[in-house]
Amino acid sequence: MNKELYKSLVYMQIDITPAHSFKSQIHGNHFPHSLSIICRCDNYRNEIRVDVNSN
């Protein structure tokens, strides 16, 4: 993964919950629509995992 993109994703995780809001904010406002971003919220470990696919 591109390092700058990764840093952006990590930075944006900080105050954004729940996972669907995070997905919405990234996909709609921060990245080109050619990126497909899928977020999964792990309630047991309180973490959000992000999968990024470039089309």
Automatic annotation (TrEMBL):
Stated name of the protein: Uncharacterized protein
Species assigned in the record: Arundo donax
